[in-house]
Every structure is written in structure tokens, then in C-alpha cells.
Amino acid sequence: MAEWQDPKNFAIGLSIALLIMIVLVISIIALSQVYYKRIIQEQAKLALTKLEHQQTLLWSSVLVQEKERERIASDLHDGLISKLTVLMYALQTDNPQIKPAEVLQDSIRIAREITHDLSPPLLEQTSLQELVENFVSPLSTVYTLDNFYGLHRLCEVKTDIKLQLLRLVQELINNILKHAKATKITIRLRVTNVSISLIISDNGVGFDTSRNASGLGLKNIELRSQLLNAKWRFKSKPSLGTTFQLYLKNDFIIPLT
Questions:
Q1: For site-directed labelling of 62, which of 22, 37, 71, 121 has its Cα 20 to 30 A away?
Q2: Distance between CA atoms of 169 and 163, rounded to whole angstroms?
Q3: In this structure, are residues 225 and 168 in contact, taking their beta carbons and an 8 Å threshold?
Q4: What is the CATH number of domain 128-255?
Q5: The 3-state secondary structure of 194-248, one letter per residue
Q6: Secondary structure letter of residue 91 according to DSSP
Q7: pLDDT tens-digit map of 215-246
Q8: The pTM is what?
Q9: Facing residues of 255 across strands?
Q10: Residues 6+ apart with CB under 8 A from 169
């Protein structure tokens, strides 16, 4: 009888094979537990990172609002209140060098500018194209503007979405004015019955998009894009200008009859 046919040797071999299988199963289970534990840790880390990022955006939003309140307060104090103070002085002293009608007219103009900045007039009746064009057209005296608007004639964007998109455009343009050192600004706005796309680019100094944006302006842009539930990104390289792209499904259509 061959040695391997010996029942004792067969039992030993079977035991060794079973032991090896048990070790393999235990190793696989242990490795699986380590793998799943690592996945859970990565997911928890990602969730924490997202939470911290949202908290940063929220804090940035609060700072932006406070900054806006300070600006409005400054406009009221330095512009409107100072004019009204001059008007009151003129009425009390009958100073011939001060013309109350002109001062009053300036006060009305300043008040109108402040209210228009807070809420654009006739927002509901004005198209998104007109709102954007009214904001950027004064820049044509300093910058080369290349604007294109493609708007579906049988639909309109809801008022609150128009306002958010307008604020987004204003923030983007203000960033260009402050930081880009550009000479040309390009705007592409397209509204269809299924989507809205916005592209704003400049030929300025650009920036490194691989670095986390720390400015309030960029964080405010990100926050507004998230509020719109839009897909967005910056494309930029130092000295090669900057392009902002935004796309969102147009669930905000008002059919025109």
C-alpha cells in the first residue's frame, strides 16, 4: 500500500489542508474587515470634510452679508444722509450758495441707486438678458465686451432664479474688475426650455485653480452656484485669463402665452 494511502497519513494531510483553508478564510475575513473599515473611515473623513467646507461657506456667506450691510450703511451715511444734512442746513440758514432743489434731486438719485442695487427695478418684467446687459454695459468705456445671449422666446426664468443669476454675474464681474487686470470680458448666456448655461471669461492674469480659494468673492460664487443646484467650475492658469462655466437644468421655466 502506498504511503499516501495510509489512513493516518491521509488524515494528517486532510487536517493540514483544512488548517490551510481555515487560515486563508480567516485571512480573507480579516483583510475584508480592514478594507471595509478603511472605506468607512474614508467616507467619514469625506463627510467631515464636506461638513467643514459647508460651514466655511456658511461663515463666508455671513461675512459677505455683513460686508454688504456695511457698504449700504456707508452709502447711506456718506451719500444720502450727508446730502439731507446739507439740505436741512440750507433750509435753516437760507444760504444762497446752496440750492435746495439740486440737493434734493441728488438725494433722490442716491436713494434710487441704493434701492436699485438692493433689488433691481421691474425684476419680474425684465428678462435675464436685460438685467445682465444693464449691469455690464457701462463697462464698455473701459473694457472690450464680447457678449452673446441666446434666450428661448417662449419661456422666462422665474424671478428668484433671475436674481440669483444676476448676483452671480455681478460677483464674477466684480472679481474681474478687482483682480484680473483684464482688458476684455466675454459673456455667453443661453436659456432654453431645458437648461441654462453661463460662461464668463477674461484675458487677465488668471490664477492657480489647484489652490483652495480663500477670497469671499469666490466662496460667494460657490455658495450661489450650490443654491442654484448647478454644475460649475473655473478654468484658469496664471497669465492665461480665467473662464467661469455654469450649467443647470432649467426647472424654473415660466411658459409665455
A1: 121
A2: 10
A3: yes
A4: 3.30.565.10
A5: CEEEEEEEECCCCCCCCCCCCCHHHHHHHHHHHHCCCEEEEEECCCCCEEEEEEE
A6: H
A7: 666 777 888 888 888 899 999 988 889 999 99
A8: 0.61
A9: 155
A10: 132, 135, 136, 187, 198, 200
